[in-house]
Amino acid sequence: MPMITNKFGNCPECGEKWGHGDQYETFLGQDWWKKTMTQEQLRKEYEGKQWSHLIGIEVHGMYDGVCEWKCPFCQTRWSRFTGEKMRVRYHIQKGSRMYMRRPYCGYSSDNKPAEAETMFEALEVQKTCMKNNPGVGWDIYDADTGIIILPEEYVTLLKRERGY
Ligand SMILES: [Zn+2]
How far is the CA of 78 from the centre of ligand 1 (A)? Predict the structure, then answer.
């Protein structure tokens, strides 16, 4: 999966252009720089730099900085660390009965498992579920295979998410 390296190019999903407008042109019409630099210095600093529509998402408690990029046109999100497109990867459900690491009984009260796109998010959801409904053993499952993820695998998945 390619990383989002060009924040001014076209969205790989919807094709919309993220870059818009030259920063030098914008600042030329403003006054804030006139006290500290000449127009030539402003040009050197900002000419050719564009504004971008791409949105950087910071996830509090996970990383001090951008964790995900989001296209404002199609809402697609990508991990900043792996370049992978965000999608539902984990289900969180009651783990009352297990067979070969697959649940065969034990959904949430609405019969739908809670969903998470990242392990970080899945752990947050699990924490909330345990607080609201303790004693039923909330587990995290791989959304594609339906196989339970063992607690000793959480850290590995968290690290993979951050691109370690
Ligand atoms: Zn897009």
Answer: 11
Per-residue pLDDT tens over the stretch 96-142 = 655 555 655 445 555 678 899 999 999 999 998 888 888 778 899 99
pTM score, whole prediction = 0.72
Question: How much distance in Å is there from the Cα of 149 to the middle of ligand 1?
Answer: 31
CA 90 to chain centre: 14
Residues linked to residue 17 through DSSP beta bridges, in sequence order: 10
Å from CA of 6 to ligand 1 middle: 13
Cβ neighbours, 10 Å, residue 85? 13
Cα-only R_g, the chain: 22
Instruction: Give 164's pLDDT tier (boundaries 50, 70, 90).
Output: low
Contact present, 57 and 70 (Cβ < 8 Å): yes
Residue pair 160/84 in contact (Cβ under 8 Å)? The answer is: no
> What is the distance between the alpha carbons of residues 114 and 91, in angstroms, rounded to a whole number?
5
